[in-house]
Amino acid sequence: MKANFKWCQCLIVCLLFVKTYAQTSIQHQNILWYSYQNSLELGKNWFINSEAQERHFIKPFGQNTVMFGTHVHKLIANKKVDLSAGAVFFDQVSADPTLEQHLLSLEIRPHIEFMISQQTGKIKWDHRLRTEARFFHRENQPQEDADFTYLTSRLRYRLQMSFKLFDLSENKSVRLRLGEELYINVGRKANLPFFSQSRSFLSFIIPLSKNTTIEPGYMFFYIKRDVNRVLERNIISLTLNQKFKI
Description:
Layout: H1 2-23, E1 25-43, E2 46-57, E3 62-76, E4 81-92, E5 105-120, E6 123-138, E7 149-167, E8 173-185, E9 195-207, E10 212-226, E11 229-245
Parallel strand pairs: 1-11
Antiparallel strand pairs: 1-2, 2-3, 3-4, 4-5, 5-6, 6-7, 7-8, 8-9, 9-10, 10-11
């Protein structure tokens, strides 16, 4: 009797899951990300990271977003802990390439974060926690509301691992990087789900010179718009990284 009851419970849960999934509208998009990042060393354990990124839809081809960001870093605890603060600017041209009319929006995201690094054998682990606020400005809003308006805040936790695959030469090696990042909304002003996004990523870090690497990669981007709408993105990325010293 108890066994039959447990089977009934499992069946009910499965049916509810299928019903919920069937009622969910899932949109798929394929996007290319081109990025440039540089790290400027200011002194012992201090450096500035800057980045610029262009995002394009693949089919139909069209611009998605332009992004610029900069943040200051401080290494402590024998360089095992990274404290950082900065901001990122987004100019979203289109969220859906199939639509003829787009609601252009600008966004600024100031943030603070800390990252803890660990070495386990040949694998390096990074745990990063970032908190960020989101301020929006829409192109077609009235002139009196032309300033950036606070919408929401969120927490982001990223678990990342990297390790050497093989050597190209005595001082150059190709590394594999993969990980997962989760997004949680904590602001009350926006009508957004508590859990909104997750990113699964994989990339190869290929050295071109002592201070320059190129990083091709793939990312699966899951975005929960609301209870019944989900956006899934397949992202192919290519990043050029450089390091400089003053």
